[in-house]
Amino acid sequence: MTARPGGPIDADGLTVKPGFVDIHTHFDGQATWDPHLTPSCWHGVTTAIMGNCGIGFAPVRPDRHDWLIELMEGVEDIPGSALAEGITWGVGVLRRVPRRAGEMPRAVDVGTQIPQAAVRAYVMGDRALDAPTADDLTAMTQAVTDGLRAGALGMSFGRTAGHRSASGQPVPGTYSDEDELVALMTAMAEAGSGVLQVVPAGVGGEMGGDQRHSIDGEVEWISRLGERFRIPMTFLAMVNEQDPHDWQHWFSAVRTANAAGANVRPQVASRAFGMLMGHQSRMNPFRHRRSYRALMDLPLDQRVQALRDPQMKARILAETPDAGDTPSGRSTQPPHVQAALPLRARGGESDSTTNRRLRQHRGHRSARASRSVGGHLRHSAARRRQGVSAVPAVELRGQRLPTISTT
Ligand SMILES: [Zn+2]
To answer: What is the Å distance from ligand 1's center to 115 Cα?
Structure first.
């Protein structure tokens, strides 16, 4: 296309259309150094929303820079070295206000949401993976309120176990219990602005690192709290090949909630998402096959050598993909992750979402027989009232903790 300022634009053979608003990006780092936000601008995106999936770089304190980079690197496979070198860090609750005077000129408008993990790190520092205290919750809700006042477009929760930092830590907030969700949603409702974006547990199915069907319980609280708070909410509604029709009862639950006053919109992609895969990336299509997993800890050259063996090739190709563990020793199951999960269960006084999910999993057959999307959390709430104790740490250690990169 050729054009000069003030002159005609020759768009012969091209399509003229309004710009796209891309509501799900992770440009949080790139937005501080690239005014064009390539490649999105090449595809007609004129507004990009970042701060999705509970991760991002604001609010932030200086001692959390590397930690937040590691989180983004792991969840989105954005090279940490590029982020570390490229990001211009700001200060304050919301370091970038869209169109704020003095910002660099942009070819693409940007808006940001307040990511729950960043809020936790901002308030709780090294304890970001623990359950927040009452004081923490107060400070977190204040950060959300301040962020919304400063121009944030909403807030985001990341709740899938498949999203992990480069060193294998879960995204802070993945296992937040309902008290925390309610506190943060209350802040949003009181601010009277903003959309809540949720990446629910179970979004990638069992292969994505969550218990099968765990998204059912997520749709339940999203619908129920959506009805209670009436704030605009959206969640990723992705189907997987194991349960390709589950979206039907999620949508049905959402329709019922919306008819009762909720404002929940399942977020559906028009095509399957793409990701970079390879023997050097953390994501590899063969990682769900047993024989490949046995090779994953080998140095690259030795792994490639082993894969050249025709018998090995045949064996891997003949195996049925499963959701088994990836081998420990790489970035997938570091000891501190193993330690992090029991910490939350040790509290005993509160019923963590992790425990609920484990119980959901066990009681799934009966819950599913009734097709009651809403049954899970209510069931566990009733058990909590009866004083059911937390799941022992050893059971939590038995959970699968694979690493996967998704949206
Ligand atoms: Zn995302």
So the answer is: 11
Query: Starting from the edge strand earliest in sequence, which strands make up the sheet with 109-112, in order?
Result: 20-22, 45-50, 109-112
φ, ψ of residue 156 in degrees (nearest 5) = -135, 145
- Phi and psi at 350, nearest 5°, equal -120, 150
How is domain 20-267 classified at the CATH fold level?
Answer: TIM Barrel (3.20.20)
Please give the average per-residue pLDDT across 286-307, as a whole number. Answer: 90
CA of 29 to the centre of ligand 1 (A): 14
99-137 tens-digit pLDDT = 454 567 889 999 999 999 999 999 999 999 999 999 999
Q: Where are the alpha helices (DSSP H) in 109-238?
A: 116-124, 134-149, 178-191, 214-229
* pTM for the model: 0.71
User: Domain boundaries in the chain?
Assistant: 20-267
Average pLDDT of the chain to the nearest whole number: 76
**Distance of CA 145 from the midpoint of ligand 1 (Å):** 23
The Cα–Cα gap between 120 and 339 comes to: 18
Gap between the Cα atoms of 71 and 168, Å rounded: 9
Distance in Å, CA 30 to ligand 1 centroid: 15
